[in-house]
Write a structure and sequence with these properties.
By secondary structure, the protein is an alpha/beta fold. The protein has one domain: Rossmann fold. The chain is 31% helix and 9% strand. It has four helices and four strands; from the N terminus they run αβαβαβαβ. The protein has helices at residues 3-20, 52-62, 85-92, 106-118, and strands at residues 46-49, 67-69, 96-99, 123-126. A four-stranded parallel sheet has the order 2-1-3-4, sandwiched between helices. It holds the Pfam family ZnuA. Residues 139-162 are annotated as: Disordered.
Length: 162
């Protein structure tokens, strides 16, 4: 197993352990809906995921044992999205918050800082923990190449009668 796969498995284990460590609902209630923005709040055990992908991932792990809410409205991806203070309070009162410790999700980083400074019992799970990210400079092809391309067309063997 290479280190990338090992890191991914470790991160998955951390998330699974965090989800199962005291956050499983006892009432068997259905998971909360996702993507309706900040109007939803938890009615029992559960928490928040910082955006849809983490919400979906957590729902697949926790299933019906925990309510998870995606506060980012449907159609938005969370980059640069800013929640109201009401959501920050709701996250601080939940059992778990799954997020990415990444500048693109500054609001989630701020929520975690607030949770940690207040000393609440919210389990914070950084889904990037233990994963070595590859650097990406924004270019996906070589601009300085001098490939010799044959300027032929697939229909060159046909006579053009124009």
């Amino acid at each position: 197993m290479n280190s990338t796969r090992r890191g991914l498995l470790k991160a998955s284990g951390v998330v699974t352990a965090g989800v199962l460590a005291g956050c499983i609902g006892e009432d068997g209630s259905e998971p909360a809906a996702q993507g309706n923005g900040e109007t939803e709040s938890l009615d029992g055990d559960g928490g928040y995921a910082a955006f849809f992908t983490l919400y979906d991932w957590t729902q697949n792990i926790a299933g019906e044992h925990m309510d998870i809410i995606n506060p980012v409205p449907a159609g938005e991806i969370g980059h640069g999205w800013e929640p109201t203070a009401n959501l920050q309070t709701q996250v601080a009162e939940s059992d778990i918050f799954i997020y990415l410790d990444s500048p693109e999700f500054r609001w989630a980083q701020d929520a975690v800082e607030s949770i940690e400074s207040e000393g609440t019992d919210v389990v914070t799970v950084n889904a990037l923990e233990g994963i070595d990210l590859l650097e990406f400079d924004g270019h996906d092809h070589d601009h300085g190449h001098d490939d010799d391309h044959d300027d032929h067309h697939h229909d060159d063997d046909h006579d053009d009668h124009h």
